[in-house]
Amino acid sequence: MQKNIINKILICLLLCTHWVCAEETELMPKTIFIAGDSTAARYNKEDQQGWGGVFESYFNLTKVKIDNRARGGRSSRTFITEGLWQQLLNDVQAGDLVLIQFGHNDASPVNDARRARGTLAGIKEEFVDIQNKLTGQQERVYTFGHYIRQMVSDVREKNATPVLMSLTVRNKWYGHRIERGSGKYGYWMYQLAWELNTAYLDVTNAVADKLETLGAAQTAAFYPKDHTHFNHMGAHIHAQSVVAVLKGIKPKLNKSYFSERGLTIESYDWTWLRLPVVADQSLRSVFMVGDSTVRNGAGDGANLEWGWGSLLGEFVDTNKVNLVNRAIGGLSSRTFVTGGHWQRALNMMKPGDFVLIQFGHNDAAALNDNHRARGTINGIGVEYEEINNMLTKQQEKVLSYGGYLRKMIGEALAFGVKPIIVTPVPRKIWQKDTAQIKLDNERYPLWAKQVARQSGTTLIDLHNQVAQEYNQLGQLKVDKLFADKHTHTSYEGARLSASLVAAELQYILAH
């Protein structure tokens, strides 16, 4: 696994023309193509419209053409075998954007006399040879991942840009929660996006978040035909979410490409981070929320910096539990909440899940400035401060560090999710008189412990555990565990922290 990750880093450093590396340029395609099924296709029906049918209304058509090639009833396999993909590809020019969204029909039978459109499950390079009952022809059928890889490769051969998308949302409710993806197709798309270094648009969770705020009764009005296909209003909800997440990729689309309607859609600026999604809904999940010491940047080891949450999978059996690292660098407990990131993570959780909460490194910043405005009030009290946020230009009530932790703990418990407070990892700052790591036990680690104790929340004291390990290793060895002066760990440094978290987590999961 380590070798594969290092190889990805080297590729990213050498080929800085792809998503995570390219940040200074802008995308300026002549055409945005859509490849997909009925949930994206255009219809002239009152009870059915795909999101691609209304997509162009969010773009300035004097700058870019929206070419929707989505076709109802097709899977990734039959979109290719019927020649629809080649027809699209013939018209793709260098610099164009190709949005790829499949999965709803890939779960169908691999071979029958009706449609014969299913693909093998997963993303491995497996196949089965069949006598197609529909066409009467011999056919080699591959996995979902194989067909998506082919599409990505074909688009790149045309010097165009492929973008992978998760599924649209089905109107299937479980209590007050809506289904977040049919099967594992969204997760497989996520895996392929990482493997192929391609942008990933998490449309599923973006739309589900909206629909859950509307509720089951109002959502039903968007699905008059069945639980999969939506009407014109439902198409706009999906299209708006596609636009929002598309705005957050890097490199970005030039602003001139959007219509007045498109400009009003708030950007999901974190799309480029390719945050994880739940792999298997049948398993319980361990979510992580925090800052760059948990997940650094896009979680790809850029600048050789790693957060411990990215390496937790080396010590936890992901066949038994999902690991979902939603931490975002640069955020404090406050801005993780006010930026909506906590709510989006919470929306993905289900009863029985766990959430590791680690903040503190950025909470010591200024309460109010025009740079980040991310600081929290010291301590765990109930005091607050009303400010006119210089960055957002909005009125805001700023709480204490403990106040935000309590908010997350309370809301997790209300969802049936078990919160676990993790004290922030220590910085590499040595005390000259003792040659020991300088502890910060009078501030954030202490306050995190106090909140955990007062609320009866499980605690992992990572701050002191890691410090003990550093003290035993000594300064020369610890230097190799950091990728910068004193805050961000290297791969091995993150791995050390992850091993300590995993040791306690395994016990918690077993009990």
Helix and strand topology:
Elements: H1 2-14, E1 26-27, E2 31-35, E3 65-68, H2 76-81, H3 84-91, E4 97-100, E5 127-131, E6 138-142, H4 144-157, E7 161-165, E8 173-174, E9 177-178, H5 185-196, E10 199-201, H6 203-214, H7 216-220, H8 232-246, E11 252-253, H9 260-263, E12 285-290, E13 322-325, H10 333-338, H11 341-348, E14 354-358, E15 384-388, E16 395-399, H12 401-414, E17 418-422, H13 444-455, E18 458-460, H14 462-473, H15 475-479, H16 491-510
Parallel strand pairs: 1-11, 2-3, 2-4, 4-7, 7-10, 12-13, 12-14, 14-17, 17-18
Antiparallel strand pairs: 5-6, 8-9, 15-16
Task: Describe the protein.
By secondary structure, the chain is α/β, with parallel strands linked by helices. It is 32% helix and 14% strand. It contains 16 helices and 18 strands. The protein has a 5-stranded parallel sheet, with helices on both faces. Strands 13-12-14-17-18 form a 5-stranded parallel sheet, with helices on one face. The longest helix has 20 residues, at 491-510. The chain is globular. 48% of the residues are buried. Residues 1-23 have low confidence and may be disordered.
